[in-house]
Amino acid sequence: MRVLFTTFGARNHVHAQVALAWALRAAGHEVCVASHPDLAEVIARTGLTAVPVGRELGEERLMEELREREDASRETYDEDAPDAQLLLAMDELRPEKLTYDHMHGVFTAMTSAVFQNYSSAEMIDDLVGFARGWHPDLVIWDPLTFAGAVAARVTGAAHARLMFGLDLVGRMRESYLAQVRRRPAALREDPLREWLGTVMERYGGEFTEDLVTGQWTVDPVPTSLRLPADLPYVPVRCVAYNGRGSVPDWLREAPRRPRVCLTLGVSHREVMGGDQASVGELIEAVAGLDVEVVATLDARQLREVGSLPPNVRAVDFVPMDVLLPTCSALVSHGGSGTVHAAFLYGVPQILVPGTMWDNAIRADLVQRSGAGLRLDAQTLTAAALRDALTRVLTEPSFTAGAERLRRETLATPSPRDVVPLLESLTAEHRDDLVRNHV
């Protein structure tokens, strides 16, 4: 069968799709990956076929928009006001806060500022045009890139979301629709439905809820950490992919002391233009400890530090799948790719999350699982991090918690293992009547 992957122009979102895309290709299926033109080279470097669609999203423009989102998310109204909520944040889970007014405001803002940008009219038209000519049997789309669902519906292909992290959209969507149904029919506004309904009208179709949450969802999050949502999920083991790399000589030797990986990921570094946790505080915290620290920091980040302590090795990049198996602990920003790789290798974690998407919730879930600790990026001190790292390295409960998540991860079907199920679901869901009239 032919499988079309699609995402917006962010490198880490493509990386989240590579393992499954290659599993399908290795099984004999044809695979293409469609995204904004500025991601075409990144896709090609994975060995997959790139399909540029729409106009360039532009790292500079994306950076500006995401910075605005970050700034806005820190602004709160008066706490006594009934609508005191974080702007453009989908990570609210407290039932008492999930009022219609709050969720309607979030979906309105996210639809206009984020969803319609990542799936612009130009991108949707190009993707639909390509799908009409290529005739995919299955479209697998990033959960923030609704163009994939539209292209599938127009051409009769089966379609599924592939999560890169926690299902914030699915979780809030379920709560929002429950609130909408309680309202009088004349007041049941739904900004996401209105936008996608208008898009589908251009192609002679209409809105259905699978345009938001897929016909099913392929989910790499361990089931024990998944957010509750009444949706069909296909669990898949997360296989780390960080791009091209090589094993440095120093990594071929076993560490003489406990090795700690310290990383802040690439999302803030490359897209947001900065880190939310203080690099200086992080380095000060590990100075003098009887550990070997491998810090994945670039030249700009190192300027915040000056000279490095003797027990810290700074490297711009090293693949997580070769570094983490040698580590006794991980200190990170809580990004999905980094955290999932730690699950796979059973590494206890200290998470210092910022406000990007689901990092804070993920950090809470890891701490609740017993596999690590969460610290606050805004109030981080070297002393607090040093104490947390000492606990994680010396208290057996954290290693035991990380090992539980490792066993759960290894028991989850691999990308190769889920291919037959995806084939079966595709045959069940694709619309041959529509496909024959594309």
Explain the layout of strands and helices.
Elements: E1 2-6, H1 11-26, E2 30-35, H2 40-45, E3 49-52, H3 59-74, H4 100-118, H5 121-134, E4 138-141, H6 147-155, E5 158-162, H7 168-181, H8 191-202, H9 210-213, E6 216-219, E7 233-235, E8 259-263, H10 267-272, H11 279-286, E9 292-296, H12 299-302, E10 312-315, H13 320-323, E11 329-332, H14 336-345, E12 349-351, H15 359-369, E13 372-374, H16 382-394, H17 396-411, H18 415-429, H19 432-435
Parallel strand pairs: 1-2, 1-4, 2-3, 4-5, 5-6, 6-7, 8-9, 8-11, 9-10, 11-12, 12-13
In short:
With 438 residues, the protein is an alpha/beta fold.
The CATH C-level name of the largest domain is Alpha Beta
Largest sheet: 7 strands, parallel
What's the assembly state of these chains? single chain
Number of strands: 13
Describe the structure.
The chain is built from 19 helices and 13 strands. The strands form two sheets. It has a seven-stranded parallel beta sheet, sandwiched between helices. Strands 10-9-8-11-12-13 form a six-stranded parallel beta sheet, sandwiched between helices. Helix 11 packs across helix 16 and helix 16 crosses helix 17. The two termini are 17 Å apart. About 4% of the residues have low confidence.
